[in-house]
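User: Structure please.
Assistant: Input sequence and predicted structure:
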Amino acid sequence: MKINCFISQGEPRQLKETIESLRKSTLIGRIYLLSDKKEGGKDLDVEVIRIQDIWSTDTVRKIASFSDTEYSLIYTKNARLQMGTFGMERMSQIASDSSAAMVYADHYQVINGLKRNNPLISYQKGSLRDDFNFGSVLLFDSRKLQKAVDAMNKNYIYAGLYDLRLKLSQQGDIVHINEYLYTEMEDDNRKSGEKLFDYVDPKNHAVQLEMEAACTDHLKEIGAYLKPEFKSVKFDEFDFENEASVIIPVKNRVKTISDAIESVIRQKTNFKFNLIIIDNFSTDGTSEAIDSFTDEKLIHVIPKSDDLGIGGCWNEGVAHPECGKFAIQLDSDDVYADEHTLQKIVDAFYEQNCVMVVGTYKLTDFNMNTLPPGIIDHKEWTPENGRNNALRINGLGAPRAFYTPMLRKFRVPNTSYGEDYALGLYFSREHQIGRIYEVLYLCRRWEDNSDAALDIVKMNSHNTYKDRIRTWEIEARIKLNQERV
């Protein structure tokens, strides 16, 4: 058994150490350097493959053409790699035993000189995010790699490796080895909350278009693609005293709840609305802060059950007899951008004939000063293909609003993360999702936010859940398409 390795151009000293680490294994065959530099590979005793774009379709095809051993390894970073003792042997053994198309492994990271564990999560049908974390060492069955490359019928500049992974998942299993088999030198030291929005950075727009195209083709091939055909909504089907209700689930947010309430009370609309606050047994003075407001629009609810997450609190609010025709989200940390937010959202329901509306928000600090990347508008959404592309991205945006009869029918998952994403995927299965691309909402980042600086275990838990949501939705869409035939 031999393994050809493909590594990307990097700093010469780090490259040399990576190559030396790989060559400690007797399984290693040839090592190829993927380089766009004429001088790349000098004094490294490796063969050079000249490329233009590091993870383009052309680069992936070149890798496949040199994959003449049983397995092929791609190292996706250009920092120093240190394989663990017999790490290569273990990866190839699992690849052989499982007949996997690709394997990847847990590993260690060295950040600012400190070594830490970096456990990964298992790949599943719904793991369609183009930023799914496989680590940097990917081991492929070369025959399945070549078969997947043969099926790649579009030329991408940025999405070649992503397209390969999707095609591979159709060839066989992508297997996670939950053993620590190597160490990588991490150079992205940002907190989790600072990485969440990389994909909506305007400079990445061309990248996202390619990723969407690759994902859409994959959904078509597995039978989960939905054509741009939508059911219409009859908004006069039910009677509501209030046209809209703002729903705020809250627990121990005494520092921010008053700001949130004030931003609702000052709304100017041509319809009747109210504010339903589900106070999930706060103990820090939040309840008293809510009761200090005397506005008749405010309804303060303390649920009977003590096992509610954010989604469960939403169910309490939606089930309230005074809930309006449209249920509109506001987190207890945040505020609406101006006094016209509710009017714009309700107008969008009628104008776009949709069961859910998603707006645009701006990231700020506690004092509402703008934080990078600033405006999060999710312009990757299109009316025609948004519901398919929604299976690739990790969220739909905010604020979110829903046609209340739909929420009462489906119910919100009783979780405190991803419940809104699950709703968006479910509703988009047959209905249009409306979008507003102007800032409606200021999302405040501060030390008590739920996703500002998550540890790796919590991040993995969140990502696993969203992958499960996507898996369930993909299976439901495949079933729906089969029933339509």
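DSSP finds 15 helices and 18 strands in the chain.
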